[in-house]
Amino acid sequence: MSDYNFQENLWEKQPKVDPDEEMLETQRNYIVVKDPKRTVRFSNLPKLNEDVVMQRSNQRSFFSSTADLPKLSEDCFVRTYQVNNLTSHQINKVAVMPRTNQDPKRRVHFSPNFPKLTEAAVMLHTNQQPKDLKIPFHVIKDCTQDFNERNFIGKGGYGRVYKGILTWADHAYQLVAVKRLDVTGFQGNKEFRTEVTMLSEYQHKNIIKLIGFCDDNKEMILVYEYASHGSLDKYLSNTTMSGGLSWPQLHKICIGVASALDYLHNHVAEKHRIIHRDVKSANVLLDENWNAKLSDFGLAKIGLANQHNTFVITNLAGTYGYTDPQYERTGFLTKESDVYSFGVVLFEVLCGRPACVFGYQDERRFLHHWVRTHYKKGELEKIVDHTIKKEINPRTLSKFSAIAYQCLHKTREERPTIAEIALQLGKAWKIQVSLNILFIFS
């Protein structure tokens, strides 16, 4: 493929795109550069209705309007890398290059006079669905007995979930959960494909495993490993479900979620991280051994790794009562936004109540308000679940609540990293276990 001619019109040698080739139309590489004034500029690029990931420097970066942003296919993610030493007139020398059969690696071509990049500019990570995970619709119908109501296990704004027994390929009589998305519901095609890509590419013992998916005849179906004990929120202040969960079980579940988030924030790949964007107790599933499985990646975003202040400019998403207040105000999503949401989950576990109770009209309505009021007064113990209070050691309670409260700082800079949280939760666990042993032998 010939290089783009980076002249004023930018498109003098633009490759021809066959309109019949859908893949060429939906899979592209965008180059986005940033000037020394920390303002992102775009030139001669299509308009945008999608989120853009960029690196936050010492000064804030701003978009003048959404009309300045490039349009991204809903089948794509953005990965951003810093570009240095660009002047404002050089910033206009930017181009879009579709993938072609002659250029399968989707390399970015620059003219010889284009300034050298310290790191590759913004790369588009094409969201191709892994073919080996695709399950025919007739197999899923057989698996769920044609979505029989006897196999129905739950529903939400996204659609309905069924239990099934999958017999297909290497899966012999495997128990699975089948989520059939409602095409008119909250979770659409973009979220569906995001989740397929995320869960097929990034795997961890505390992240729900994707068995397969189906998009035949405009269906949007996700097939997961079956988490037999359901979601964590069902056990908060509910002693009717298996007699409730003990403090050791709850503590280990929290450690498992922290481990999953640490993997997403720090270990998925060398040059990027995943921001989940919807951490809540309802998205923590529990397997037969009560191991935590973080789920629901339809809202997740990819950000730049190895940068302390990575953030994503995005439309507000998440769940009422869990959302980072700075994200609500600014639209800037960061890994610390996940930390805030996880802090709410930690206090849900400790206090045995949901993040939001609409029946209250005072400070009790939102858990984070209720916690702040009592924590500042030194009266947090008053709102700890009475069953947990009987089981948890006071020293464990002190360390657990301290790290949870740090997560709820209103300013992101004051919040701990998820790696620090995982470490402190582990220390709190060791305190609980060691003191229990001393009690047994005393």
Automatic annotation (TrEMBL):
Q: How does it sit in the membrane?
A: Single-pass type I membrane protein
What GO terms fall under cellular component here?
plasma membrane
UniProt similarity note:
Belongs to the protein kinase superfamily. In the N-terminal section; belongs to the leguminous lectin family.
According to UniProt, the name of this protein is Protein kinase domain-containing protein
- Origin species, per record, is Lactuca sativa
Q: Which PROSITE patterns match?
A: PROTEIN_KINASE_ATP, PROTEIN_KINASE_DOM, PROTEIN_KINASE_ST
Offer one example of a GO biological process linked to this entry: defense response to oomycetes
GO MF annotations for this entry? ATP binding; protein kinase activity; protein serine/threonine kinase activity; transmembrane receptor protein tyrosine kinase activity
> From which domain of life does this come?
Eukaryota
Location in the cell reads: Cell membrane
Asked if Cytoplasm is a keyword of the record, the answer is: no
Q: Which UniProt keywords apply?
A: ATP-binding, Cell membrane, Glycoprotein, Kinase, Membrane, Nucleotide-binding, Receptor, Serine/threonine-protein kinase, Signal, Transferase, Transmembrane, Transmembrane helix
Q: Which residues bind ATP?
A: K179
Any single Pfam family the record assigns to this protein? Pkinase
Q: Which residues form the Protein kinase domain?
A: 147-430
Write down the Gene3D superfamilies for this protein, in alphabetical order. Answer: Phosphorylase Kinase, domain 1 (3.30.200.20), Transferase(Phosphotransferase) domain 1 (1.10.510.10)
InterPro entries reported in the protein's UniProt record: ANXUR1/2-like, Kinase-like_dom_sf, Prot_kinase_dom, Protein_kinase_ATP_BS, Ser/Thr_kinase_AS
